[in-house]
Amino acid sequence: MITTEGLNKIYGKDKQALDDVDLHVPRGVYGLLGPNGAGKSTLIRILTGTLKPTSGTARVAGYDCVKGIDEVRKRIAVIPQEFSLYPNLTPIEFLEYMLILSGKDIDRSLIMKRLYQVNLADHAKKRMGSFSGGMKQRVAIAQALIHEPQVIFADEPTAGLDPEERVRFRNLFSEIGLEKTVLLSTHITEDITASTNMLSVLNHGKIIFSGSTRELINTARGKVWSCRVKSGIEWEKFKSRNLVFSFTLDLDNEEVTALFSPKTNEIEKGSESLEPTLEYAYMLLINRDEVGEADDELSQAI
Amino acid sequence: MMNYLRQFKLQLKIFLLERIHWLILVLALVLLFTDISFKNSNTFSPVYINNLSRSVFQFTSIVYGVLATRFFLMEVSKQSQIQWARPSFRVNFIIVKFFAMFFGVLILLLPTLVMMLIRGVSFNNLAGLFQGASIWFYLFTSTFLFATVLSILSGLLLRKPALAMPFTLISLIWLAIRQTVWPDLFKYYVSESFGLLFAYGPIRETLQINRGYFLMLSISLLLLAILIGHFILPANKGKLKLKNSILWFSFFLFFIAGTIYLGSRLNYQGSFIVDQPDLETLYKSNDVCDALDSYEVVIEINEHGYVEKGTASVQLNTELDIREHLLLLPSLMDKPVTVEETSPGTYSIGYEGEFILPNYSYSNLFQDPETSLVGFLPGGYIDPSRLLLLAHGQWHPFSKCDLTRLELRIPETININYSSADKNNNANRVVNLYWDENLPEVLIIGGADYVEGDLNGQKALLPEWLNSDYRSHYELIQTKFSGLMKRVALETNEEQNTIILPIVGSSVLDKNGTFFLRSTPFTMFLPDATPSKLEIEAALEVIQAWWSQGTDDPSLQNCLFKRFSCLQPTRSAPDDKSVMPFLYYFSLKLTSEQSPETVDLESIIQLYQTIDSDPASIYAVPRMFDKDEESELIVKLFQLDRCLEDGEFWNVLVKLKEEKSNVWIDYVDLESSILQLTGYSLERLEQQCPQN
Question: What's the predicted TM-score (pTM) here?
């Protein structure tokens, strides 16, 4: 449904936002994972026709994102990270407007159906200015579904949501993914884990991984360790030798329990190997320059 | 199209629901209610609405411009991907926004019009309200159209509210506070829009061009914004469609050509409007008039109707440097004036240019006190549809002096509606008209679509567009004129009394006894146009025109010719203007004699007696005066009138006109003249005439 080949975007003279991006997104929910500034939003803007690529091609639903952008727009919807939702309109009015902007006739029953789907039917006639962040995101989902698009681009959709809303949101995505193609762009690995098993990782404008979540997790197998370290100078030295994913402090014993991956091929004494998660695998991937070859050698040795 | 309309409806809703936009309405109502003329209006509805709208629109358009910029930018940021990723949110975004903003502010400001119309109802008829509403829309459309387009352009080019909003604010403040004249190309805000309906000659023409220019400019800029938007807005980078491109280009070509054409016309018009009189030379006019033994002029009028070329021959009876007395406006000349002494004391003066009636000679607007002292200088104004040449217009070198002979050459293509020429002939598609001595005031009227008709059985030249309202007004004037002529015991001749409707700003009674009626009925400027007031004002118009025959005092002419110009204290007139209530009393007298069933003189006088204590009387009296003494004088004149024999007071009027119409008559003068003529003293009426 979405393919890019050799896609480049350079801002100004030399700010490379996308570097030779090749992407193939099949039907269903597909994750696009990457840290902030990786180029995810730029990629989505190109795919939705609000930005032109410097070179390369991008196709959505079979249409070129530059030459056939009018056709692309008929088949897509966007759920952005930040958006303004006309605070004085009600969800019904807003969805009516979105239908108009999609060139469709106003269909009240369809609007109500979507509002039920996102659990906003009770708020259908309230001004959106009073909505919480989660409710606004649900309006954003409703607007994305309103004109029956084939492809939905979700750019950091769960940012700023509380845990309950986030869970509800992920479930909605999974549900939508049964019928449509959803490109879920995020830097939160849990969003991916809960919604899809296919993803690409984008970093510094480059696709550095494409495959299943399992494959990504497997790349981290044997590279994630747990260890207890004395706080203070020893802990400082530990951090310089290892990539620390997380740690907890035991104040009574003045010890730190850390989850980490070693930067060299020496494993800290007393370390225990752990089963990797997507988050650790992703962290390892985007920090692979730091962890480097040593990690590979280490994992082979194990 | 349906999609456009639906988008427009939603955007309009968004505009109106945005609470900060209600600030426009609140500000407009505050400005309206705090405007002193809202409560104390004593003027007619269109002028009243114009004056109020002027202050309301001037400030609200600035606030609106800033808010409109903010509103335009609502969907221009990166946060509007939802909209921009949709197929119908492209270049039409600008068009939809434009209409939503324009109609949005129209809806927000309509209550001010409604409030003004409600107030206007109390002192005007439906026609007046309609005219008032027209004025409101004239002012609104051009002002807010430009402000809307400016906000779109600044938003589009600067993209960030923090930059675009201050830019719009500064631009609009700059445009609003600049002291400019109508022909100025940046005069986006015109306060005297009622001139579009009621003005004549260059004033209306310039206003029309100015408004047309800003309309064209605004639409051209809007089209430009659409083009810019195509290239820089987030979703507008698709290829240009040939059909759309041709459509856009055709519109743009039309509107930009219109902008350039009207802009150049406006610049051209500026050379007439900004002219100021040569006061020094004007004040010396009497010297040169006394020195002229003969003064003959030959002029040519071109096919556009302008006085293009002239040759004046003068014979002096005393030594005088005539170069220092030329009143021709230098800005209207194409070449320097040539002065040649053909024989001792005889000069030939040649001039070429495009001479029209200068703005200051008929306009009350933007005049400094010195200029307003120039008074009424009827002249030759010619525009594409109307031509009027008056004997003392500034189209000949010594405008204030009487001509002894005039030859006028006018193209056959110009239709002459009226000519006072002694003789004429045609040659080479040119009509030659000749006047020898005793030139009347009005020389020719031409170009306009006048037709011969009759008013109350009198032969009259009437405009083709005459409607029943105008006709009844003109008939009223004609009735008053006939009535006055009978009472002042003048021999009248049917032919001479023909009423003609030229484009003069005030009615003129010609030396030959022909009455030239102003084309815009002054009753349109009249508060509470009751039948009684209409009658009285019509009579006053006639009486003042008759009185002005013997007047060459500029400040007195100014008061007689320019309606309402002397109601308030003015530097150009003396403090004691007793002659004005004196003439006004005769308009009351004439109408009460002619139409006693409509005008009850006694009850009107009672109103003037209670004007001090009863505020309601202020608006009930047909005409207010700015001094209590003047109202008291009207009461005294009434009391005197009751003491005199039938017709005796009319004789007083005639005698005073013969002796004193050339000068201001103050109360002391009036009192002594009346004493001399009737034996009654205005100060001792109670003793002399006890029945009062």
Answer: 0.71
